[in-house]
Every structure is written in C-alpha cells, then in structure tokens.
Design brief:
The structure is a single chain. A hairpin with a 2-residue loop joins β17 and β18. The protein has 16 helices and 21 strands. Helices cover about 30% and strands about 25% of the residues. It is of the alpha/beta class.
C-alpha cells in the first residue's frame, strides 16, 4: 500500500507540473514554498527542561537531507522552489525553556522574512510542545509565522497523532494531517502527504480549501492504550484513509492527544478539510463519533504488571529475549530518562547478583560521571561511578555502579558517548546524554547481542517495530517517572473536565463539527474581539 501511495504522489506531481508549467525548468513558473517547524512532546510532570541544542536544528541542505522525498532529483524537489528555513526535532522531554524557544523561533522568522514572499509553507511539527510560561506553543508559533508570511500563503501542517489542534492552530493551518499509525511507521509518508496536498492546491491553482471541520473530543489516553496494532485503534484509524479519499474531502485526521502535560488543550481532536461543506462536516463527525463510542474498549497493547512480577515472569521464561518496558521514565514519551529506581531494584534482586544469572541488558541511564571514568579506564578494565537522577531524583538518588567496561562508543548524535558496564551477568548501558534504544544496531554497535539475551529491559512504552519483531515475549512494567501510566494519579489541575477516563460516567459530549474560519477571517475575528 505504501509503495502505491508513493507512486501515485510522484505521478500526480509530474502531471500537475507539466500541466501548469510550459517549461518545467523555468524556476519562475514553480511555486515558492518554505519549510519550517519544531517538533517535541513535552511532559510537564517531569522536572526536566529542554534547551535549544536538544532540537538539533537543521538548516539549508540539512533539511532536504532529512526528508527522503526531497532527495536531489526527486519529483517533489523539482516541482517547486523550496526555501528551507529552520526545522528541529528533539527527543521527547521536559518543557522547553523560554530562552530556547525564542532563540529557535527568532532564527526561523528571520529566515522566513529574508526569503519572503511565499506561495506555500510546509509546517512540520509534533503538536505537543510545552514551553515554560506559554500555553499552546504550536499555536503561538504558527501565529508568528502568519505575521511574517501573510494571509495568502497556504500552510500545510504535518503532525504526530499525539499532538493537539487548538482552534488557533486549526485556523492558521489551511491543510492539516497527522500520522495514522502508532507506532509511527508512517511518519515520513504523512509528511510527504502534507507536502503533496500543498502541491496539489498550488499547482492546480485551487487555492485554500473552503472548509475545515473541527471536533474537540474529551478523551485523554496514553499511547500505550491507543496503539493501532490492536483494536479499537486499529479499526478507528483504518477508517481515516477512505474518509480522506472522498470527493470533496482533501484530508481527515484523528489526534489522540498527549496525556503527560497539564494544559487545557490536552485531549482528542478530529479534523477534516476540503471543498464540499456537507462531506467535510459529516466526515469529521463520523470519525469523532467512532472515536467516542470506542472509548471503553481501549486497553494496553501488551500485558502490564509491577516490576517485581515482570522480573519473575522474565526469569521463568525460556523465550529470548524477554523484553520488559520500563514505561514510567520512557524518554520517547517525555520522561527524563534518568530515573534510577527500576535499575536499582533489578540489581538488588538476588537473581541478578550472581555471575551465573540470566544475561540481562538494560538501556539506559545517563551518567556523565561514570562515562568520564570509563573513558579513562578503557575497555576491559574496572570502573566505578555514579549514574542517573541528575534531573529526576524524586523516586531514587543517583546510583553507584561498579563493574568492568565492556564497550565504549563515541559520536552518537544523542548520547555523544555510550559505555557498557558489565556487572555480574548484567550489561548496563550508560550514556553521556540520554538516548532512546530502538534498533538492534544500537546494541550490536556496543558489542551486545540482544537476540541472545535472556532479558532486555528498555526505557520505552509500546515497542517500536524492530524491537517488537525481535521479542521472544514482552510485558510492560508500571514503573515510576514523568510519564507514569497511572494518569488518574497525576496532579492535573488545568485539563478540561469532564474528561474520559477521569469522569467515566460523564454525559455524551456534543460532537457536532464546527467550521473553523480561514486564517484571515480568524485574525479579523480576534482583532475585533480584542483577542
């Protein structure tokens, strides 16, 4: 299916470009499109904060290199005059500091001003970025972009399905879409779809869609309960593609939202955009109703249990590797990634104190102190140092590790330096800076064999495809951290109520779709009302 979609995209671009331009090499005949965006999901329940460097900002050719569909010579690359301004994507974490946000946004806006005007803008965001002292960060960002590019520029927004679409973000986006799979195996396909939707409107000369139907849905659930691998998420998201393929509808999307931030916007959404008002409205309402009616059926994508039970199950199992998700401190959901409580409890367990115990791999904990000492000691030599709890020490203090340096690797984009410490038959990955471990190569590059390990414990929630396919068995441990799965135990103060599942017996909400004004109409409305 993905191959067919990509071929269709390419064919469409080529047909439209030939039809719209007498000379495909005439740059003046091509639409001028900017590329901009910042992506992160931020837990306000984590004490961590995120700085500008964490976004690994991309500029110029680096932006093209990030997107496979913008490779040199590709149909999309040749179909427009592209202006790559600034993009950035950070590992999920704590709220972004105001200084970091302003530095990145100022550079982005300066670049946009320098190269204006534009026919279109590809706005690549996540949708769950929290900035200290600022509500609706993406809404603020797109408002400031609009002030630079003006009301006529068509903005096509690509998002994660765990993002949020406030009225402001919906109004200033002309086209909008999000992932349809969790795990997000369709991330690049979604970004390409957002660009294709934009190209279709620009080259055909049809301009902005006439209608944007928006539904706010009072549901807030974690991604581990809303995966599209299982029902009801599987059927719910399977309905999106045919809904978006209707004549008169350009795109449709369902956002599950992000549960680990305490902001009024945090809940579910549905949107449809297109030129047929009846179909656009009916599509949004049908998807919203399907979402609401499914609410009681969402459940964890794998068995969940306590850490103690998870370890007992893994020790007794003969399936390799037995993977345990250390969910509460998952850095790919916004956890600080340095909570030591889980590893502390594992190493205190009698099974893991023996040199003849099961082969156990743990990924990972940041520990610059131990990393520095390991670099001095070298591979094969003893090392002792402190790891973890540099940021999130609410559950346990920094942990002292003493063992043998098994491996050292420098140069990782996120971790910078990785060290494996062997303690009995336990292999603990320690990093200079936090890093998620999703791929087999992440382990084999460190002289580890995850497929042969008895137990593999990773700070993650639902398994990404590569780990999922590798698993012998799998459970998710309900551990502590900034992305605790016990949502009803978190100190929410600002989310809208009633909200499912916090208010399980709440009355059915009004799921009528509301038409969102076009960007210039929204600006005028807010100006008139003093907003």
């Amino acid at each position: 299916m993905n191959t067919i979609i990509r071929l269709t995209f390419t064919t469409t671009i080529l047909v439209l470009v030939v039809a719209g331009c007498q000379n495909a090499n005439d740059e003046s005949a091509k639409p001028k499109i900017a590329i901009a965006g910042l992506a992160i999901e931020s837990s306000t329940f984590s004490p961590a904060t995120t700085d500008a460097a964490a976004f690994h900002p991309r500029r110029g050719q680096e932006i093209f290199d990030y997107y496979p569909f913008f490779r040199d010579g590709s149909a999309l690359r040749n179909a427009a005059e592209w202006v790559p301004t600034l993009t950035g994507k950070a590992i999920p974490g704590g709220a972004v500091t105001p200084e970091a946000y302003e530095a990145l946004v100022s550079e982005m806006l300066d670049s946009l001003k320098k190269h204006a005007p534009y026919d279109g803008l590809f706005f690549d965001i996540h949708g769950a970025m929290s900035v200290v002292g600022l509500d609706d960060a993406e809404g603020d960002l797109i408002t400031r972009i609009r002030e630079v590019v003006g009301p006529e520029t068509i903005i096509s927004t690509s998002m994660d399905l765990h993002g949020h679409v406030t009225e402001r973000l919906a109004a200033y986006s002309d086209l909008i879409t999000c992932y349809r799979l969790a795990p997000h195996e369709d991330a690049m396909e979604t970004k390409q779809r957002a660009v294709q939707n934009l190209m279709d409107r620009l080259v055909a000369g049809t301009g902005k869609p006439a209608y944007k139907a928006w539904v706010s849905i009072p549901i807030l659930l974690p991604g581990e309960q809303t995966s599209t691998r299982i029902e009801p998420g599987k059927s719910l998201y399977a309905a999106v593609e045919p809904a978006a393929a209707q004549a008169g509808v350009i795109d449709a999307a369902i956002w599950m939202g992000y549960p680990w931030a305490d902001e009024p916007r945090n809940h579910g959404y549905v949107m449809a955009v297109g030129d047929d008002s009846t179909k656009v409205k009916a599509t949004a309402e049908k998807l919203a109703e399907k979402f609401w009616q499914s609410r009681h059926d969402f459940d964890f994508v794998a068995p969940t249990t306590t850490l103690e039970n998870a370890l007992d199950m893994a020790i007794k199992s003969d399936k390799k590797p037995f993977i345990i998700s250390d969910m509460g401190d998952n850095p790919t959901a916004g956890g600080a990634g340095d909570v030591t409580k889980t590893l502390m409890d594992v190493l205190a367990h009698k099974t893991f104190k023996s040199t003849n115990g099961p082969t156990f791999i743990y990924a990972s904990l940041p520990g610059p102190d131990l990393v520095e000492k390991a670099l001095q000691a070298g591979v094969g030599n003893p090392v002792e140092g402190m790891v973890g709890a540099l940021v999130d020490h609410r559950f346990a203090p920094p942990l002292k590790l003493a063992g043998t340096v098994h491996a050292i690797k420098s140069g990782d984009r996120d971790a910078e330096v990785e060290v494996v410490v062997k303690i009995n038959n336990n292999y603990v990955i320690v990093t200079k800076k936090r890093k998620p471990y999703h791929h087999e190569k992440d382990f084999t590059d460190l002289d580890l064999r995850p497929r042969e390990a008895d137990i593999l414990m990773v700070k993650i929630g639902y398994l990404v495809p590569e780990l999922y396919d590798m698993r012998g068995d799998w459970v998710m441990a309900l551990t502590a951290g900034g992305v605790d799965q016990d949502l009803q135990g978190l100190p929410y103060k600002r989310i809208q109520r009633p909200m499912y599942p916090f208010d399980k017996d709440m009355a059915d909400p009004d799921l009528s779709a509301r038409f969102i004004p076009l960007s210039h109409e929204y600006k005028q409305k807010n100006k008139s009302s003093g907003g």
